[in-house]
Amino acid sequence: MGEIDESFIQSIEHRPKSISVEAEGIPVIDLSALNSQDLVVQVGDACKNWGFFQVINHWVPSSCREKVELASRAFFRQPSEEKRKVRRDEANPMGFYDTEHTKNVRDWKQVFDFTVENPTVVPASHEPDDPELQEIVNQWPGYPPNFREACEEYAREIEKLAYKLLELISLSLGLPAEKFNGFFKNQTSFMRLNSYPICPIPHLALGVGRHKDSGALTVLAQDDVGGLEVKRKSDEEWVQVWSNDKYESVEHRVTVNSERERFSIPFFFNPSHNVMVEPLKELTTKQNPARYKPYNWGKFHTTRNISNFKKLNVENIQIYHFRI
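^ 2-oxoglutarate (2OG) and Fe(II)-dependent oxygenase superfamily protein, sequence as received from the core. Prediction below:
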């Protein structure tokens, strides 16, 4: 049957169920819809009631996605010593990594991260009074030869899609389409290639433990293996501050299996490091006051990244820590 290191083992209450529940009614948004107002309503309903949705007819070329998927598989199937030539660390958090933790439990996965803007400017430390900034520069492997080209081409296409979705979300909140766009000048967005290897004891571990993404929007492409589990709001079976809780990030996790490895590619759409995140004035009233204190995105994100490199004795920073 095999064994796994104890650092991967989830506590009993957070282990995956042996039988998965198929969610029905997941919103599917057709971006080719001719009636843009209907599209806005659909996106708003999906954000409010689910926190996520699937998009079709999204204009991202299939050839572009296929190219990055093949490059990703080729990279991860190399020997560990080759992948570790571009291993990330606290000085440069972009590159390969295989010891990431979620909720202080090690994830059963390997990742490769790269920023959309190269270089990307971020705070030099998580200390609130430290004004120093640093530039993060992507590091690229020598194999496969087309790896960088495939990644950058795909990132450009997904960035276009992310802006389109952001505009639809803005309209669904009753705001101008480009209301959020200014927050993403000099963005800190990054893309991740995920590899979830075959796990000998999949009922004890998770590819990624339960969590909520902290950025504005995540665009995810996944293969046919499956494993993404989302906690539905209606029964809790397995963009938040700006909207003042009107739209809430959904908790999700990734299971693994003993038969097939799994690959996915999330794009984390994040604002500039100097953006102060707070409920928009247009969405607050005397009857519905702001529910969050303002916080600096760059410092928040840098603090969140601490747990990428070491196991913490306390819970890492979360958005709910800023609730009023």
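DSSP finds five helices and 16 strands in the chain.
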